[in-house]
Amino acid sequence: MIEVKMKCKDLQARAKAPRLPRNPEPKEWLASNLSQQKIADYKPFNFVDGEGVRCSLYVSGCKFSCPGCYNKVAQNFNYGYDYTKALEDQIIADLGQSYVQGLTLLGGEPFLNTQVCLQLVKRVRAEYGHQKDIWSWSGYTWEELQKESADKLELLSYLDVLVDGRFLEAQKDLTLQFRGSANQRIIAVPASLKARQPILWQAEF
Ligand code: SF4
């Protein structure tokens, strides 16, 4: 009887505990093992995924499993459609519009789809240099990415802005700019790489 009561208390405590995202060990999750190079969505000319008018690529697949994830279907690495040269050409053409400020990568998890994201950001830099900026969202924190695989660090090196960290329901705040929860940060990547520590991004105007 005492054992049954203890089990009930355990279950009640577990039910009350806040649901949390998963925390990988460094290099535990690799794009080379996980990515199916699928795209959940592509949204050209939007105003919500960063500063200015942006072209946003939503890659498929994420293992963080944040409770309350804004795009749960895109957690599946097989969701959506194949990344193709035709789509890449379309993104490059859309970015060429003078009113477009840049490219945004989100998902899903861009850093678990580095095959697609690296190919695209390299082409953006080859075609437009730094005339167009590149933003990415990630469930990884800046500090976690520093201990990650070479492909993730390479992708980071192409970014201008990283919005980092899991979505935490307990810190959800709908008033935050570009973020869903208060733990997430908007990081200026070139300055942070130079300083070897995260420097927060600030809007230019
Ligand atoms: S990191 Fe982003 S995409 Fe992945 S589960 Fe969390 S909220 Fe969803």
UniProtKB/TrEMBL annotation:
NCBIfam families xrefs: NrdG
Pfam families in UniProt:
Fer4_12
Q: Which cofactor does it need?
A: [4Fe-4S] cluster
Query: Which protein family is it in?
Result: Belongs to the organic radical-activating enzymes family.
Name-wise, this protein is Anaerobic ribonucleoside-triphosphate reductase-activating protein
Known EC number: 1.97.1.-
Kindly give the PANTHER family that the UniProt entry links to this protein: ANAEROBIC RIBONUCLEOSIDE-TRIPHOSPHATE REDUCTASE-ACTIVATING PROTEIN, PYRUVATE FORMATE-LYASE-ACTIVATING ENZYME
Task of the protein: Activation of anaerobic ribonucleoside-triphosphate reductase under anaerobic conditions by generation of an organic free radical, using S-adenosylmethionine and reduced flavodoxin as cosubstrates to produce 5'-deoxy-adenosine.
